[in-house]
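User: Here's a chain of 451 residues. Predict its fold as tokens.
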Amino acid sequence: MVRISTFACLIAPVVLAAAPAPVTFNKDVLPILERNCQECHRPGEVAPMSFMTYKDTRPWAKAIKGAVLSKKMPPWFMNAAYGHFANERKLSAAEIAALTTWADNGAAEGDAKDAPPPVKFAEGWSIGPPDMVVEFPHDIQIQATNIPMDQYNLLVKVNFPHDVWVKAAEVRPGNPRVVHHMKAWVRPPGSPWMADAPEGELFKPTRAQFAEPVGPAAVREPEAVLKVGTTPNGPRPAQEILAKYNPGVNAQEFTLGGAAKFIAAGSDIVFECHYTPTGKPETDRSRVGMVFASAPPEQRYVTITGVSNDRFVIPAHSPNYEVKAEATVQYDTQLAWVQPHMHLRAKDYQLSAYYPSGESEILMKGGFDFNWQLGYEFAKPIVLPKGTRLESIAHFDNSENNAYNPNPNIDVKYGPQTTDEMAVSFMGFIIDVKADPARLFQRRGRVEVIE
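Assistant: Prediction complete.
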């Protein structure tokens, strides 16, 4: 009797300790949302619902479970076996278990004292107070039709009074309901691009007028812009992307390796606008903000079209059309950031590097979703010696099995409109401040069909 009673007393605490504690919003769920979700899921941002409070989040408990189990949220499309990224958005197995257990067991709020301190997000500008803001000169009208608008460009004649070095930039949509994605391009002095476009008005470019990020027309001798510490052998003006806005891409910093982005005196800003109408008349007045570097940097950050192919035709009903593109770097550089860009028929993307040593590696590989066009920031910039060949491979589904395909019965060519297709890699490079961005690449494109 004594032995049995003592044994029961000894094991009782063990049984009690093994009982799992209930999963609650304040103790278990809110920390996960703060780390992974609230950047988008808060008032005024791209997500359609807020996850800032229990009251806001509770109605979405089952939807959250489904989204994390299917890996739909948080959006992240690269295979973990290839590349390491500073901005990776992936939940651990323990985090997924906590969210699903919470949803399956009544989605309890828990004790308020268990909640972590709220995250202090920047009000308005994520980059902090900008040193300069370039805005549409006036509201522009967005058509009411539910058919997505074509691509339009909008020129703002800034005429920068002197050279500037930018350490951070951010595009803020004036009306996030209709802005699907947007770029702010630097148009350098002397560039003929958009020369005849009316300022402050939506301008639909022809194929010939569509932006080429860096090319002979985007370069001129720097003698006329020697103002803020530049020299005859200093930075050259370039037509490049200053900043982008996408679901999943917004503010960017350019300070890796002591770098900054250069804008030459006399430059203007061209907004490349892609709208999705809501079915009723809307207006938009978007803007881009910049934070300037306090001194000329050690290195220069440039964002350009690194690897692209505009010479392909995807046949009607083709379920797995492959498009390859290549570019060889002409001087030593570092690859810091990549954003694959395709349209509604895209399935996946891969980027590889073939080094002069004969070695090669896959830098990134994964899926693609037009609704979440993510940019991928390498945890450590990839060193690319002169002569390194970059190759991208993308696959497209132009068949009726693709739910996003607007018309599987037509051949599809490269083009700027959403109903066209693209095979583009926007890339952020770190180069020497005296290097010429227009001479970074030797490009060529290749096409291969795999059915």
